[in-house]
Specification:
heterodimer, A: about 250 residues, alpha/beta, Rossmann fold, six-stranded mixed β-sheet, about 30% strand, B: about 425 residues, 2 domains, 9 helices
Amino acid sequence: MLKIQNLHAGIEGKKILNGISLEIKPGEVHVIMGPNGSGKSTLASVLTGRENYKVTEGSVDFFGKDLLDMSPEKRAGEGLFLAFQYPVEIAGLSTINFIKTSVNEIRKYRGQEPLDGVAFLKLMKEKMALMDIEKSLLSRSLNEGFSGGEKKRNEIFQMAMLQPRLAVLDEPDSGLDIDAIRIVANGVNKFRNQDNAVLVVTHYQRLLDYVVPDFVHVLYNGRIVKSGTKELALELEEKGYDFIKNEIAVEQ
Amino acid sequence: MNIIEYFKKSFEQLPSENGSDGIISLRESAFNAFSKMGIPTVKHEEWRYTRISGLFNKEYEFPLLPDNISEKDLNALRLPGSEQANELFFVNGVFSFSLSVIRSAALIVLPLEEAATNEYKDIVAKNLGHSSNYLKDGINALNTALVHGAVFIHIKKGEITEHPVYIYNITDARSTNIFSQPRSLVHISEHAQVQIVETYTSIGLGESFTNQVMEIIVEKDAMVEYFKIQNDAPHTNQVSSTHFRQVGKSYIHTVLISLNGGIVRNNLNVVLEAAHCEAHLYGLYFPTGQSHIDNHTLVDNVKPDCLSNQLYKGILNDNASAVFNGKIFVQPNAQKTNAYQSNKNVLLSNSAIVNAKPQLEIFADDVKCSHGCTVGRLNEEGLFYLQSRGIPEKKAKSLLVHAFAIDILEHIKLEPIRMYVEQLISERLEFNIA
């Protein structure tokens, strides 16, 4: 579904990604780990089309289409979703109106009729229960005054509502306590199926106790320097990122 | 002919036989003041960013008699909810009793000259022209100098006015350019409550300049909600002065919505002359094209323990410009004053301009006052967030602008008017965001 080839990108003249190649197939969960500044969030930003990031080389193919050529809203229409590391607070825009607009714009993009009020509420109730979200939260302004946990749960809730084909989760576990991590992980696990895929970008291994990945990649200096299975994440947790740095130093 | 000469001719033509002595002498002293000060130029500190002097290079007709407006014309400009409202009409600055519709027994409407000689004469004598203590410029003096066709509006003691009072300031510029000066004195008695809606509408393609003064006296335990809607054509200009005196412990709530016009200047004064008064001032200006909207607010804390809160928000597109100038005075014995002010602006284009100036003059030591001002672009991170959820850029911008405006709009407590304004803003967002 997603094929990244030799991706080079940066921001404001600073090169951050130095040739990333990665293929994700339906049904897979990939995790990208790496120390601070390795380019994890940049990769998520480039995939979802954040302004100011410049791709200098390489390509990203999403279901046979050139992803990099699309606006952020078009990418969403094609089935890409980004759970933000820092969800944006928008005073004056109710969460529920935002999600309803989002769901129906994506349906429109796909040539589907908008959901009517009843169908929308039914879908929403189902997903709210999944993410342990209170109705009162949804009538509040989008993310405004939400706790860290509420913001992250709201992101995964939106993912559940939008049912993307590929979900990119940028540090979905940062700042969360154990209970909140469990809820987030449960949301991700319920979402997974044979037709979709998940790319988790994280600094820590702890989410992976609940969300079992198929592949783990280590990003360092803007390149994937090591790939493996879930055991690699455990090894990283145990030895820290220094062992990767040392391995690379030895190779060079 | 220069401006002063021109208006001197009008001044001399004013009918005097039915004017009370008080009004006549007030007119005379105001005309002298106008003759000295003239039309304010940008050299006047309060007019630095708003240039109206150029508007007086044109020729205007200054009608002294009411104009004929057909029912069809009126229906075209009526606001939603008007069938449930008291409707008061000024046409070219002259109050029209024949067009106006009074639905509330609590509401008394009289020609100002009559009120100046009957049981209300003390109220008129004490309050008419009070705004000139605060608006020290020729434009305020000019309105007073030429007072005619003015109206006295009285809300009876202890009455809750169930029907809101809609005041239409109509300019009929179908045959010529029009200069008009609506003038009113509003008296809200003790324990009375009223909602007032004011709007400005022009008919025809002639240019117009409306120089309006409304003075509102709010007595003890009275409550006033005042909503001003400005959405007139780009060839209409106005200076609109609204002057509140809270002479007893009372509550006022104002929302000014300025969406369109050539040059629009609002002076909103609130003089807190009794302890424990409350005043809430909200404003939203959203000029596009070449419109210029200037909001000057002034809150004068004369007595202790008053609360005032101001929130003005601006959205500017195209080559539009705006001014927010917010003054707060705290007089020496106005201890325990709480006075807050906030002004936030979003610029949607690179050529829009806003000048914001808070001005606090505090002469008491035990007070809480704050002011803040921001000017920025639409929240780019928010825009990306919405787009990444599949919402197209244009719609995402509309949602963000609407979200920015909503905490002003929600203060329009009259449902039909709030829905009307929301509709105007939605329509604009549909077409106007690049």
